[in-house]
Design brief:
Number of helices of chain A: 13
Distance between the termini of chain A: 50 Å
Number of domains of chain A: 3
Strand content of chain A: 15-25%
Helix content of chain A: 25-40%
Radius of gyration of chain A: 24 Å
Structural class of chain A: alpha/beta
CATH architecture of the largest domain in chain A: 2-Layer Sandwich
Oligomer: homodimer
Shape of chain A: elongated
CATH superfamily of the largest domain in chain A: Dihydrodipicolinate Reductase, domain 2
CATH class of the largest domain in chain A: Alpha Beta
């Protein structure tokens, strides 16, 4: 029976749950594996914080960097800073011949390129199942289970907070502001985190990691297009529903003409796409490969227990899997892709144009579209109460994004247009 | 670069697709792994059958048993007989120190107990990702990705043919007979396979394997309760829909009071259960563990390419994973569970009682229920055209199955009951 010695930095919800789960599963682990897991040291900012576990049984380190003076096999980084101590700990652990497990998506999205190379040079694992989609084992699915599939496209709901907000807006007819305050009151997001969540950055961090796993792309956060959900109104969700869609914050990545196209943005998802049924704080991912038309995974995207499950699965991986390519691809085979120009994307779109209540508006808008060969699929003209702007809702057939945006720029200059035009891509189910 | 030498027995849809995929992925595999896969020999019943691949490039063996005279590392069994040549080949391959990959659920469900022990004694892998749910990597998910989770319950749609039939009945208002003939004309099932599919046996074979992986249960096919879909009428599907449910053939397994309860049966699934949205030939599985409230996987349950993806993932597994417990649990830690008595199950139920069109029928039925303390949730009385039996549809609250069946036995004896009462368990979403 091999003893695996681990040290844990960061004892928040996830860190505490990791310890709790390891204690609870001690006998069970012996039924399935040839190792015992021994917690050699722990460290956190505040030693005296109230926690679900009794930390007095474990050796305390004021600085996690002192883990490096122990003979631990694995350093588990759950501090969660994008740079700072998290980065220093991971970097120095790898340099000192320790395996590293982290849940830190921001750090990996921003510094992963350097850190994964360092892991490879030292023949150590840098694993991160908990960094993407909480308890869903999406990393191991891509890295091990379908590793010899060529991924064509990955798309998912990678942020539970925004999905919860959109679900609340839909189910309870709430405004965006009301929904976000409920999400905050439930502890799903804090005002300081909200920008990361709502702005789409958190999802984009995760998508950066997934793109690397799927396409062997060098980790380059700058390749992401990012639009958050703050411009989505309750009315858009209602309009989408009338048209047969749900609005979700979708992160998707694919290779188009040898360029990488990674985008996090609200999108109208048709009801027969399984992502449309993913409600509340759940996460979900759909994978299309050369061998699989669709592989869909759904589960808890956050929460202590679920995320701890992923951290612990990485411990198991380090001592059972002998393929040390932490990103699936050999590090020297990663590709530095050029960013696909969004303006070249061909997609159907949903548009909301807020106009004055005067006659002839619709014919003026459609004549601009006609001039640019933009083909309209449906128009909903929804009269609001008097004196208010009239929203005109239009869905287009597939159109080159550049063409659409140029035409909308013209339309926006017209005096009858009273607000910025809302433009949301639409899932046509046939991409 | 290590060379992995494989031999393939059975060149039907799956076997041919494995060869095709290995040819297509040759360069891609080099980007991710340190091995080349070399097809050392092939064998099938009929050498001259038309296939998607050119087999003249590979060494032909009239009998796959002669693979054992080569120095191949892995024998891939895709013949698919429950016993016979499939069993002989797998057994002798393991005895001769070859790893084995198979897609053969019937063989594993019936003879797995012996075969997995043999694999363990010889320190060889016996892998079977392709045996359950086609392209969905459910085996590796349970065995590797969430291996240190204690599974509480697994439930799934494990047979695409029956799911296709139920979906056709629902969407196109078809009778069972019409739907099955369409499924046969599409090649999803043949008259000879239909009993395996429709009767629920194929699903139960797969569930047997999953139960072993989830709970460390000895492989014992006899522990399954099996009811097929042949008694489901279009009207039941319509009634279920009115009540907010879909009828699916569900396979589920859990441990109740230290006994194993494995059942394949039609079930009314509530719309908020993700299994309700799984339509057509898709398969899907939901897993509940001590750490995860729900992990849901959906994908293609059959088809050459998708199943080949699973076979190839097993090749990768053999040369990257050093935990040789093919069932996840150490073979000596498997448990011989007692079978949970179905009569002790507490569940809500859907009932269809075909009655004469005379007054007082309903009050008679409900008085029997009252005598047995069976609590009715809803009653739908749906008049059909004159002279025909009147179907009375009843859903109950949670009731002990034995109590319900005894009461129904009484009711069935009454002259106003014109047919066998249809009894389908109902998913209350709170199990």
């Amino acid at each position: 029976m091999k003893e695996i010695k681990i040290c844990i930095a960061g004892l928040g919800n996830v860190g505490s749950s990791v310890i709790q789960s390891l204690v609870d599963s001690k006998n069970f682990i012996n039924l399935k594996s040839n190792f015992n897991i021994n917690i050699l040291g722990i460290s956190a900012k505040n030693k005296n914080k109230k926690r679900i576990i009794d930390i007095s049984k474990y050796e305390w380190f004021d600085s996690p960097l002192d883990f490096l003076n122990t003979d631990c096999d694995i350093v588990i980084e759950l501090i969660g800073e994008e740079k700072g101590l998290s980065y220093d700990l991971v970097k120095n652990s790898l340099k000192n011949g320790k395996h590293v497990i982290t849940a830190n998506k921001a750090m990996l999205a921003k510094n992963g390129s350097e850190l994964f190379k360092l892991a490879d040079q030292n023949n150590k694992y840098l694993l991160y199942e908990a960094a993407v989609a909480g308890g869903i084992p999406i990393i191991k699915t891509l890295k091990n289970n379908i590793t010899l599939n060529k991924v064509k496209k990955i798309s998912g709901i990678l942020n539970g907070t925004t999905n919860y907000i959109l679900t609340m807006m839909e189910h309870d007819n709430l405004s965006f502001d009301k929904a976000i305050s409920i999400a905050q009151s439930k502890g799903y997001t804090s005002p300081s985190e909200s920008e990361l969540d709502i702005g789409g950055l958190d999802s984009a961090h995760k998508l950066t990691i997934l793109s690397s796993l799927c396409f062997g792309a060098e980790i380059e956060f700058k390749n992401n297009y990012i639009t958050g959900i703050s411009e989505i109104k309750y009315e858009d969700i209602k309009n989408a529903k009338n048209l047969g869609y749900k609005i979700k914050l979708i992160s998707e990545s694919l290779i188009v003409n040898n360029k990488i196209f990674s985008i996090t943005s609200p999108k109208l998802i048709s009801m027969n796409n399984p992502l449309a049924s993913v409600d509340g704080v759940l996460n979900a991912i759909n994978i299309e490969t050369d061998q699989l038309e669709s592989l869909f995974l759904e589960g808890e995207g956050a929460g202590g227990k679920a995320t701890a499950s992923s951290v612990i699965s990485d411990i198991n991986e380090i001592f059972t899997n002998i393929n040390v390519n932490s990103l699936g691809f050999k590090i020297n085979n990663l590709t530095k892709y050029t960013k696909f120009e969004l303006s070249n994307l061909e997609s159907p779109y949903y548009l909301r144009i807020m106009t004055q209540d005067i006659t002839g508006v619709l014919s003026k808008i459609t004549s601009y579209f006609k001039d640019s060969n933009i083909s309209v699929e449906k128009i909903l003209q929804l009269p609001e109460t008097k004196d208010k702007p009239i929203p005109i809702i239009i869905t287009t057939h597939k159109v080159k994004t550049e063409t659409l945006l140029k035409s909308l720029e013209q339309i926006e200059k017209q005096s009858f247009v009273l607000d910025k035009i809302i433009v949301i891509p639409l899932d046509n189910g046939q991409e």
